[in-house]
Amino acid sequence: MAFFSRFFGRKNPLDIPLNKLKETQIKLDMQIRKVENEIVEIDKQIALLFEHAKKARSKSEELTIATKIKALNKRKQNLQNTHLQLNKQMMLISNLTIIKENEAILKGTPTWDILHNMSPEELESNLVSMQLDAQNLNENLNKMLGYTDQALGTGVEFETDEELAEILDTIRAVKEGELEPELATEKVTGEEREKKKKFELEEL
User: What is the spatial distance between Cα 197 and Cα 144, in angstroms, rounded to a whole number?
Assistant: First the structure.
């Protein structure tokens, strides 16, 4: 990810001033909110296109609408990947902020020495996978030292094979009154699968 070096240069992350971390946290929060708003807007645009598809009078008109929906859906997928990366960065900064706020307590302990001797990349890969809070800081930091960057993942992958055909089938279902535009939007953007998965998990 190389987040620290991109924003703070090659200095040890533990030497970054607390106020700089908090400034970065605010900026990241603003970026996350902006991306979330864009995703909501795309969902609205896709629902509107499905509404227009009800009045489509030819296959070519359906194809035009389906192509627009596919382009919007691709944009949403890219934004979802961006959202994932921004949230990883937020977790990273939040965890480092907690460590810096407790620096006086941690300094001089073996845990602090181990953290300070890590490379920026190694420290970054560990911090991004943690959920620290001030109460369980020492316990989680000790666990963290056994973590590797495999927990980071490489982002979200989305299947796009036969996407256009699926959108066209959904458009026809909307035209025939089998689906409402909002449900059609959830179907093609993957929200329906996420809701179903969440419901199944809640039933376990």
Answer: 30
Choice among 52-56, 91-95, 131-135, 200-204 with the minimum mean pLDDT: 200-204
Residue type, 39: I
Count of C-beta atoms within a 10 Å radius of residue 94? 18
161-169: long-range contacts (C-beta < 8 A, 24 or more apart)?
A: 163/70, 163/73, 163/188, 164/66, 164/67, 164/70, 167/66, 167/69, 167/70, 167/73, 168/62, 168/63, 168/66
Question: pLDDT of 35-94, one tens digit each?
Answer: 999 999 999 999 999 999 988 888 899 999 999 999 999 999 999 999 999 998 888 888
Q: Where are the domains of the chain?
A: 3-149+160-199
| Closest C-alpha among 117, 125, 115 to residue 2 | 125
